[in-house]
Write a structure and sequence with these properties.
With 492 residues, the chain is α/β, with parallel strands linked by helices. The chain has helices at 8-14, 31-45, 60-72, 85-91, 149-167, 181-194, 206-213, 224-227, 253-263, 354-362, 393-399, 403-414, 443-447, and strands at 20-24, 27-30, 52-56, 76-79, 97-100, 129-134, 144-148, 171-174, 198-199, 218-222, 241-246, 268-273, 277-282, 292-294, 299-302, 307-311, 321-329, 334-340, 344-347, 350-353, 367-375, 384-391, 424-429, 458-464, 469-474. The protein folds into four domains: 1-201, ANL, N-terminal domain (Rossmann fold, 3-Layer(aba) Sandwich), CATH 3.40.50; 203-210 and 225-339, Rossmann fold, CATH 3.40.50.12780; 344-435, ANL, C-terminal domain (GMP Synthetase, Chain A, domain 3), CATH 3.30.300; 451-492, no CATH class. The strands form six sheets. The chain has a ten-stranded mixed β-sheet, sandwiched between helices. A five-stranded mixed β-sheet has the order 5-3-4-6-7.
Length: 492
């Protein structure tokens, strides 16, 4: 195993002071300034008796400095997906402190700002648990996943061996957050080890992204949610893009090829999870090219029930791990995925396939996208299914006659094909499915839409800098405070 990640701080200390580590907008951040930030965070964290610290920064360079400092100080970093109150409450019992852009009541630790000498950096202990990430929550509650340094070091080397020579010298630009394992590896750790400059802030607007990609050779780290929404009218600079990566969910074949035409590089899709790390990759050549190629260190096999099993240095241990995905072997090196194997709900002792229900609805000309979620029993409510539907134009035409009209048409598709307990009891019609910073539609985000009478607007941060924050607000049509304001024209 290469020790480049374990010796990263030592390597940084040997690089020229003026070498560019990254960019904040148009301002270059040199190696000397980056090392100073590592030293500042190390001075804060090293004397503290606690071991576990939550970390969240929107700025990727400050995040990287605090992360490396924490590891040098022997701390275990818990990645926070965001700084929302629910996330903070979930982390609080597990950590000894908070570092970064957390609310004031968390008492986030400040970096030591006095002039500091660069500390004597140690080679990190490969076997130590240095990171805790969380599953995305797309199929249930998020679970904490511990990571040893040896796992992350192996992943960095796997990525560099697979893609390093093809990408060459280029800046790393991301539309995804580094607060998840995919962004952490592709946007932070691999670039730092390989010496590629990092753009500190994720790019939320296509216009900003197009402008940035035109300036210098770049690697784009993105997700299906972002690649689906690339406007064709923007002047994409195809010659500057060295590679495009996508992970976090399935990338439709037509989107892969269309985004490749815009950007000059068909996205390299990476298949894996928080628990498994990277498993396989593919770069489509046609609409029917569905085969995944396993990374060289990854062994795989198909279990008797069709589930995929993997074993690799990216795992916490080297035993075989069953993945809740069905797969079919193409040859000794590749496989195709055949859908989830764990989306079976048990309702009133009946086994119900959520995938099957979604497939029935998705086949309708009224439905563009659909997700089915099991709502567990709660006070006054039985266990039941909820459907979250993005209607097509035809579906919107039906919806114009009222929600009940579309409910009836979609329920009719299920009636006779599924048992009564598998009929959706709750329907929500959306312009698009909600996504988190990784572009994933999680169960928690969907369930949050089921409040009978919402009392809050749905806020989404679009951009932020030192002087302003720009947000978008979605106002639910059944907002409680519309009552009486006014019967024909809701106004607040």
């Amino acid at each position: 195993m290469s020790e480049r990640l374990l010796e990263l701080c030592r390597a940084l200390a040997q690089r020229p002071a003026h070498a560019i580590v990254g960019w904040r907008g148009a301002q270059a951040v040199g190696n000397s300034a980056f090392l100073h930030r590592i030293a500042a965070w190390h001075a804060t964290l090293a004397p503290l008796p606690g071991k576990n610290f939550a970390l969240y920064f929107e700025d990727g360079l400050e995040f990287a400095a605090a992360l490396l400092a924490a590891w040098q100080a022997g701390k275990t970093v818990w990645l926070a997906a965001d700084a929302l109150s629910v996330s903070v409450a979930a982390l609080t019992p597990s950590v000894d402190g908070f570092v970064g852009d957390f609310p004031a009541h968390c008492q986030p630790l400040p970096a030591t700002e006095t002039a500091l000498a660069t500390p004597e950096f140690a080679v990190l202990d490969a076997g130590r648990v240095a990171l805790v990430v969380h599953t995305s929550g797309t199929t249930g509650a998020a679970q904490a996943i511990p990571k040893r340094l040896v796992q992350m070091a192996a992943e960095v080397e796997t990525l560099d061996a697979a893609f390093g020579s093809a990408t060459g010298e280029a800046d790393v630009v991301a539309t995804v957050s580094h607060q998840h394992i995919y962004g952490l590896l592709f946007k932070i750790l691999w670039p730092l080890v390989a010496g590629r400059p990092i753009h500190a802030l994720s790019q939320n607007y296509p216009e900003q992204l197009a402008s940035l990609l035109a300036q210098r050779p770049a690697i784009l780290v993105s997700s299906p949610a972002h690649l689906k929404r690339l406007p064709e009218h923007l002047g994409w600079e195809r010659n500057q893009v060295r590679a495009v990566f996508s992970s976090g969910g399935p990338l439709p074949a037509d989107v892969a090829l269309a985004s490749g035409a815009l950007l000059g590089q068909v996205p390299t899709e990476v298949y894996g999870s928080s628990e498994t790390g990277g498993i396989a990759w593919r770069r489509r050549k046609s609409l029917t090219d569905d085969t995944w190629t396993a990374f060289p260190p990854v062994s795989w096999r198909i279990a008797e029930d069709g589930s995929l099993e993997v074993r690799s240095p990216h795992l916490f241990d080297r035993t075989w791990l069953r993945i809740p995905d069905r797969a079919e072997a193409v040859d000794d090196h590749g496989f195709v995925l055949k859908g989830r194997s764990d989306r079976i709900a048990k309702i009133e002792e009946k086994r119900v396939s959520l995938d099957a229900i979604e497939a029935l609805l998705a086949a309708s000309t009224l439905v563009a996208t659909v997700r089915i979620v099991l709502c567990e029993e709660e006070a006054g409510r039985r266990q039941a299914l909820a459907a979250f539907v993005v209607p097509t134009e035809a579906g919107k035409a039906v919806l114009a006659a009222g929600k009940l009209a579309l409910n009836r048409k979609l329920s009719a598709l299920l009636r006779g094909a599924v048992e009564a307990v598998a009929m959706s009891r709750r329907w929500r019609y959306l312009d698009q499915l909600p996504t988190d910073a990784q572009g994933k539609t999680t169960q928690a985000l969907l369930l949050a839409l089921l409040d009978e009478r919402p009392r809050e607007l749905a806020w989404r941060e679009l951009e932020r800098d030192a002087s302003h924050v720009k947000c978008e607000a979605e106002v639910p049509e059944d907002l409680l405070y519309f009552d009486g304001h006014f019967p024909d024209t809701p106004v607040l």
